[in-house]
Amino acid sequence: MSATTFGGDAAVLAGVKVLDVASFIFGPACAAAMADFGADVIKVEAPGIGDPYRYVHKSLPFPPCELDYLFQQDNRSKRGVVVNLNVPAGRDVFLRLVQWADVVITNFPPRVLASLKIRYEDLSADRPDLIYAQVTGFGEAGEDIDKPGYDATAYWARTGLMDAVRAKGAEPALSLGGMGDHPSAMALLSGVMLALYRRERTGKGGKVSSNLMANGAWAASAMIAGALAGAPPFEHIDRNAPPNALVSNYVTRDGRWILLAAVQQEKDFPRVMKALGRDDLVTDPRFVDRASRAKNAAALAELMDAAFVRRDFADIRASLEANLVIYGVMNTLAETVDDPQMRAAGLFVAAEGLECGRGEVIDSPIWLSDSRKRAAHRAPRLGEHTDAVLRELGFDAAAIATLRSERAVE
Known about the structure:
Number of helices: 18
Strand content: 5-15%
Largest sheet: 6 strands, parallel
CATH superfamily of the largest domain: Crotonobetainyl-coa:carnitine coa-transferase, domain 1
CATH topology of the largest domain: Rossmann fold
Radius of gyration: 26 Å
Helix content: 25-40%
Distance between the termini: 19 Å
Mean pLDDT: 95
Strand order of the largest sheet: 3-2-1-4-5-6
CATH class of the largest domain: Alpha Beta
Structural class: alpha/beta
């Protein structure tokens, strides 16, 4: 099977071979993005249930559905094999796959990688050109090196994001599933591409590392940088008394929330006031300059609240647009799938063979000029391509039957 069997043009990563030896989201989502650009990705799963992420869609808080939509999103366009790394014959199959691959992606904890003898140093001795991408929850040093880490614990809670992203006096909120994993996967992709670029120039492979905690700190870096610089402690924002009333949330008469992001106050304040029909406030002594507006932010927010709640969303939106005010509309997750701008921007793509609901997945958030992504394909069933891949690796029918009898593959 070629890198473009699932459809589309020969993309920029056509011919690149990726071994996805990871579970859940962080590693697999990186591999899925590489598949979007033409890489031939083989997902390696353990016997039994395979990647536990196949079944998470049946558990709250995820909306229940017959379709394994979580697994489909991050494992589209891959081939799937089942290999038992705990038996010698299975390990031999895995090492053959490593010889096939350009890139290996794993999220096994360091102690597990060591026990299975599939660390970078174990595999690179025979493959100095191998690119080995390892992801962890908390990094590869320190007391938490082998601690399991989900994005909720390592990306969201540990880095201060969970504390910071809430209003004053509000309880902390849970993160959305995968909210930290998916941007972290893009960081991993950048590392893999750096390694591929270096290999193209030097012939040398290498190990790429990333972790959820590092990516969470990067996401929170605007605030963590303040702590590093000795700035006063971060304070939660009270919507009724914000530090800047021009960067806050407001609700319309028909219950729609709008986020104002008028950060360039000198030019934005008159625009916002005109959009709200409160030009008189531009010359109000309480709001004539940045310092005055900060001092009287609670009063300004109260007046703006009243202006928003008197008008319906369509009306206020048209006025904001006409006055070039930067704002965002709070979509519900259900509304996003019909958002005309999201569809115009190509955020959703059809997945061949995915015959449930709209049959679509969310596209990876990177595009390259003059290089079309290939058509997405449904995720593999557990062990769906085991025999086909084994034949590509040189195993004949008798050898495959023996491997199955020894429970080395499924």
